[in-house]
Specification:
Length: about 475
């Protein structure tokens, strides 16, 4: 049972959320405005906060800023009836767990509270431990990654993590281990591309003394070092075919054979990662088909940073804070945030981390501006587009971002506005309002609404109808 502070000037909404929380087994603490919320935090322990954005007097962002400034501040989720790109990014930049659109359904509320509270074991996770997971996921694609990690963490299923270089595949693998039942045991990572193939077998399976010239002592090998824990085989696509056959044997028998030794049973959770297209490698004969299927019991794709724009600013602030030894930490100006959003990030999260470390070291000012990020060279074919994105003030740039995300969602859904709204995490009527502001055609909206009503009343139709 958790104590949840509900901050909203709408008494009906406070009561509704309070009833839903009570049904979930929690205690609701109502507060009608920001001042009452801060007073409640000073008066009694609170496990999480659900905070309205627009309130008379002190607005939600200022309340969030003050809550986050407190020592051991509780997690905060922001609710608003009028979401914008600017207030979403600012709320997340200030440390909100999520930014949701009213009204919030009971299922969404339950999922939100579950994300905000510590694990069921009751062992509270310190802010530093949370940061060390390295997974800052605000965007919808990365929230799906987090959900998948949560679902598979306690299983022993083999996982194949795919994604471009620098997207955070090893970070995801460590999170699977950290949140799973093997977390107390060792996590061993082996880069298959960095070790010559003639040495990789010994590195993985170990050897006994005298097994080959130069083997002057026994070697455990990564599998035995990770016994009862997790072994990450990074860049698995670069493993030789002969070693792939031996790895397949281990996956099938759960036994290893050290060089010069006897078979030994092994209990290891195996995670593989690659930036290559293994299905194409199978077709080209560069990767064993049977091993591919054994590895990809649970596939997990990490999206590139350019497809998760909502994560860029929170990640940048996180890396900047970690790289800034001084207090208060360095922060991003609005034009710097716009520059980061306009850049294509070919090196993904790793490139963003390096960029923030660079400006933290070389710039003495407490505020990082767009001028400080001039080293981020935009390809020639994107320079004019980047200039357009950076033109004007932050609200204008955020409006461009919002329009781009809406167009991208509509394209991905074949023009289905209801599905696009679901992907964007907003209500359909709000999407319609935004489409009108963008000057897009809304003549088919009525037809779409009628079609959906017909589906609900008469049965199912093809998804794209």
């Amino acid at each position: 049972m958790a104590r949840i502070l509900i901050v909203d000037d709408d008494s009906a909404l406070r009561e509704s959320l309070g009833e839903a929380l009570a049904d979930l087994g929690h205690v609701a603490i109502p507060a009608a405005d920001g001042a009452a919320a801060l007073a409640a935090l000073a008066r009694e322990p609170v496990d999480a906060v659900v905070l309205d954005l627009r309130m008379p007097g002190m607005d939600g962002l200022e309340v969030l800023r003050r809550i986050r400034a407190r020592p051991d501040s509780p997690p905060v989720a922001v609710l608003t009836a009028v979401p914008t790109s600017a207030n979403t990014i600012e709320a997340m930049r200030l440390g909100a767990v999520d930014h949701l659109v009213k009204p919030v359904g009971r299922k969404d509320l339950a999922e939100l509270i579950a994300r905000m509270l510590p694990p069921a074991s009751g062992k509270a996770e310190t802010p530093r431990e949370s940061e060390e997971t390295g997974l800052i996921a605000i965007s919808a694609p990365m929230r799906e990654v987090l959900k998948t990690i949560g679902l598979l963490a306690d299983s022993d299923a083999t996982v194949l993590i795919t994604g471009e270089t620098g997207t955070g595949k090893e970070v995801a693998a460590r999170a699977i281990h950290q949140f799973g039942r093997r977390s107390k045991k060792r996590f061993i990572a082996i880069n298959c591309a960095a070790i010559p193939s003639e040495l990789l077998e010994s590195e993985l399976f170990g050897h006994v003394r005298g097994a080959f010239t130069g083997a002057v002592a026994n070697r455990e090998g990564a599998f035995r070092e990770a016994h009862h824990g997790t072994l990450l085989l990074d860049e698995i696509g670069d493993m030789s075919l002969s070693l792939q056959a031996k790895l397949l044997r281990v996956l099938e028998t759960r036994e290893i054979v050290p060089l010069g030794g006897q078979p030994e049973p092994i209990d290891v959770r195996i995670i593989a990662a690659t930036n290559r297209d293994l299905a194409a490698a199978v077709r080209d004969g560069g990767f064993r088909e049977d091993l591919f299927y054994r590895l990809s019991v649970v596939p997990l794709a990490i999206p590139p940073l350019r497809e998760r724009l909502a994560d860029i600013i929170p990640l940048a602030e996180h890396f900047l804070a970690r790289a800034s030894p001084e207090t208060p930490k360095k922060r991003l100006a609005a034009d710097a945030a716009a520059r980061l959003l306009a850049y294509p990030w070919p090196g993904n999260v790793r490139e963003l981390r390096n960029a923030m470390e660079r400006v933290a070291i070389l710039k003495r000012r407490p505020v990082i501006t767009a001028e400080d990020l001039d080293f981020l060279s935009v390809p020639n074919d994107q320079k004019s587009e980047a200039r357009d994105w950076l033109a004007g003030d932050l609200p204008t740039a955020m409006a461009r971002l919002e329009a781009a995300m809406i167009r991208q969602a509509l394209a991905a859904c074949g023009g289905n506005r209801a599905e696009a709204a679901r992907q964007l995490g907003i209500h359909r009527q709000l999407l319609y309002t935004k489409l009108r502001k963008l000057g897009l055609d809304v003549s088919e909206m009525i037809t779409e609404e009628v079609a959906e009503a017909h589906i609900n009343a008469e049965g199912s139709l093809p998804k794209n109808k």
